[in-house]
Design brief:
269 residues, 7-stranded mixed beta sheet
């Protein structure tokens, strides 16, 4: 099953319109559990860097995290890069129209080749590493691009059911993933090999989050992969299930999980 066609559909829906782009960001923030966990972690980053800071949004997608960070602290300078040129152009247009292009810049780039030595205080990478085969090269690039005492925050699927893979015979729910998820020890070792210190990992998407993900993402995407005409009934679908999704997200955000299908990792240089 493919996620990219849905992303293209959402991109076309919000392209060129500031209002529709803000609606898209609002809906992503509201429904997707991943954004809840990332927002919680970004509050910690805000306390660590309350003043000026240079930030890299590595794999920026629709630009929703760059948008959030730019609004969290107006002193932060944010560079966002993505391999998808259309995403980059759409984000450039939106941030220019909202008057933020002086603080937030977008650039097409490949993280396997990207290094700006000692340039960033903080690097954010959300839903990126599961798409990149040469992950150890990217981790080293991240390390080299950070300033001394810089921080990296990564959100990615775990090997405990990430990408909806629970055993060796399962196929990833998202065709674009090159790996089904990371083990805690695996990603900690790879980050350590790249030079990172103080590596902290925690599971997200415990049982409440797993149910929420099925309701908020898997079933709707499954319907849209059958036929795009299902987009007509999606507003009704989310109207019915949103209260349950919100409640599950609250539980997942506030519980400590012994296992989960997602990971949040923080490390320093």
């Amino acid at each position: 099953m493919q996620y990219e066609p849905l992303k293209k559909l959402l991109g076309r829906f919000s392209s060129g319109s500031v209002f529709l782009r803000k609606i898209l960001y609002f809906l992503i923030d509201l429904i997707l559990l991943r954004t809840w966990h990332v927002k919680k972690s970004l509050k910690t980053i805000l306390r660590l860097f309350p003043g000026d800071a240079c930030i890299l949004d590595a794999g920026s997608g629709f630009g929703q995290y760059a948008w959030r960070m730019a609004r969290m602290n107006k002193q932060w300078k944010i560079k966002a890069i993505d391999i998808n040129g259309q995403h980059v152009e759409d984000c450039k247009s939106f941030f220019d129209k909202t008057g933020m292009s002086d603080r937030v810049t977008f650039e097409k780039g490949d993280l396997v080749k990207f290094t700006e030595k000692n340039s960033y205080d903080f690097i954010l990478s959300v839903d990126v590493m599961e798409h990149i085969k040469e992950d150890q090269i990217v981790f080293k690039n991240f390390f080299n691009s950070l300033k001394e005492n810089g921080i990296i925050l990564i959100s990615t699927p775990s090997d405990k059911g990430g990408s909806d893979v629970n055993n060796e015979s399962d196929i990833s729910f998202i065709d674009e993933h090159v790996r089904n998820g990371y083990g805690i020890r695996e990603i900690a070792e790879k980050l350590s090999d790249a030079g990172f210190l103080g590596i902290e990992t925690k599971y997200t998407y415990g049982l409440p989050g797993k149910i929420s993900w099925h309701l908020s993402m898997k079933y709707p995407i499954g319907m849209l992969n059958i036929s795009r005409w299902f987009i007509i009934i999606l507003p009704v679908y989310y109207l019915i299930f949103s209260p349950f999704i919100f409640l599950l997200n609250i539980f997942d955000l506030n519980f400590t999980h012994r296992t989960g299908t997602g990971l949040i990792i923080m490390a320093s240089k």
